[in-house]
Amino acid sequence: MHGWPSASGSAAPVVMFVGDSFTVGSGPVPTWRTYAAESARLLGWQPVIAGAGGTGYLNKGRVGRTFRQSFEAELAWRPAPDLLIISGGHNDCRWSAESVRRAAEGLVSEARAHWPRTRIVMIGPIWLRDTPRKAYRVRDALSGLAQQEAIPFLDPLNEPRITGTPSGQLLPDRIHPTAEGHFQVARWLTDAIGRLPKGEDHQGP
Predict the structure, then answer these.
(1) Which range (6-10, 55-59, 80-84) has the least confidence?
(2) CATH number of residue 60's parent domain
(3) Which pLDDT score is estimated for 77?
(4) What is the residue range of 171's domain?
(5) Domains held by the chain: number
(6) Taking every annotated instance into account, which residue ranges of this chain make up the domain SGNH hydrolase-type esterase (predicted)?
(7) Alpha carbon distance 48, 14 (integer Å)
(8) Alpha helices of the chain — where are they, by DSSP H?
(9) Containing H/E element for 84?
């Protein structure tokens, strides 16, 4: 488990995710085969996965809710997890980077208000091929917020294993990964989590 402490005292640390179709699954890939589920399986953690395809910090997708609204509906009422991973930004590229940053800040503030002892990690936008410039602007805005809030920020756009995903690990839409592609993202995520310090994060003012 990379030595990660279980603040809840449970047999295994509880990790909650909120994100978009990369997190919850798309096409033939169900939620239990996504990188979120696979990374929890590799780490021996208990996962709770929330969110929906097409959603983001501002983008509501077909389900009509943002990440913050998914957090409120699916996660906030639960006992505090050991770790909350907020993953996304892919679907927010049509918005200004600053407005995405403000929406992300609101979600972080609400999560900390609910669970002041829960650690938070942010994952930036995921693009497996042909990343547009606007995605980097959103990434930079989210990275700046994470630095301000003393939250670890993991950047898929700076990881060749993700941005160079082989064609055989892409679904026909050329956007989302196959189950094998998800597993490769999970391996990157578990490696990145394993490098994070195990001490307490900043918990707000």
Answers:
(1) 6-10
(2) 3.40.50.1110
(3) 97
(4) 14-194
(5) 1
(6) 17-182
(7) 8
(8) 21-24, 35-43, 67-70, 97-114, 133-148, 160-163, 179-194
(9) strand 83-87
Amino acid of residue 67: F
Say how far apart CA 169 and CA 177 lie, in whole Å. 6
Contacts of 167 (CB under 8 A, 6+ apart): none
pTM, full prediction:
0.92
Q: Which two tokens stand for residue 157?
A: 């756009």
Ramachandran region, residue 126 (left: φ > 0; alpha: ψ -120 to 50; beta: rest): beta
- pLDDT, tens digit, 9 for 90 and up, residues 18-51: 999 999 999 999 999 999 999 999 999 999 999 9
Least confident of 11-15, 93-97, 165-169: 11-15
- Whether residue 113 is contained in a domain is answered as yes
Predicted confidence at residue 86, as pLDDT, reads: 98
